[in-house]
Design a protein that fits this description.
This protein has nine helices and four strands. It is mainly α and 268 residues long. The strands form two sheets. The chain has a two-stranded antiparallel ribbon with strand order 1-2.
Amino acid sequence: KAVVSTQSGHYGRDDKKNMPKVIYCIHALSIWLNKLGKAPNMENLLGIAEFTEEEITEMRRALEDYGISIPAFNKIGGILEKEIGVDEAAKHAAVIAINELLLKEDPDVTLKALQNKKAYLNHIEVQNQAKYHDILFLAKLDKTETAQDEGKTSKDCDIYEFYLTHVEVQDIIDDINDIVRKEIAEAKFRTAISDINKCLANESASELIVALQVPASRLKHVNDKNSEIYLEFLVAAQNSREGNLNVEEIQEVLELAKKKKVPTATLR
C-alpha cells in the first residue's frame, strides 16, 4: 500500500484519500531520488499521454462557472493543474475570478466577487468596496508588471506569480478595514474635542460634562460632580490660550480641577 505522510496527515493510494497530494508527493520524491542517482529520470509524456473528456480538470470546470478560461499557467498555487481536487479548484477559481474581474474596474463587480462564499474571504465591509477595488487593482497590476519585468512567462510559472493569492487578497481587505476604522475613530476624536471647545464658548456646564464623557474624546477621570469646576477652569485656560484647547490641555485642566489649582499659568 502506497502511503505518503505529511504534517497534516497520511494520504493513501488504496483508500483514494487526497489523491492529488499523493501524486504530487510521489512526483517530487521521484525528482529528488533522480538527483541522488537512485532513480531514473522521469519520462516526459507530453503528447503521448491522452486524457478523456471525463478527465478534464476540476480547475477548468470551476472557472467555467465564472465564464473564465483558465490562463495557460503550468501550476496553480504550487500544484500542477491536473492534480487539483474539487474543493481546491473551487477556491482557486474564485480567487482567479477576483483577479480577472478587477480588470473591469467596477467596485460593485469586485465586491460581488469578494463576497463569493467559495473564495473563503472574511470581514468584507460593503462601505469599503471602493477602497478594496482600488488597492486590489493596483496590487494586481504591480504584481503582474513585476513578473513581466523579471522575464517570467505563464508557460513555466505559477499563476500566482502574476495574480494575487488568497492570502494577499485577505491581507489587503484586513489592512483597508484597519485603516478605515482608524480614520473613523480619528474623525470622531476631532469632533469630540471640537464639541468640548464649543461648550466652553456657550459656557454651559451641563453640555460640557456630557461632551467630556464622550468615549471618542479619550479623556480620563471625568467626574459628574465637577462640571462647574471644569467649566470655570477650562474657560480660564481657553481665554489664557486665546484659542481652542487640544486633548492634552483639556486633560491637564481636568487633573488640576480635581486639586482646584488655577490653570492659567500652566497652559501659557
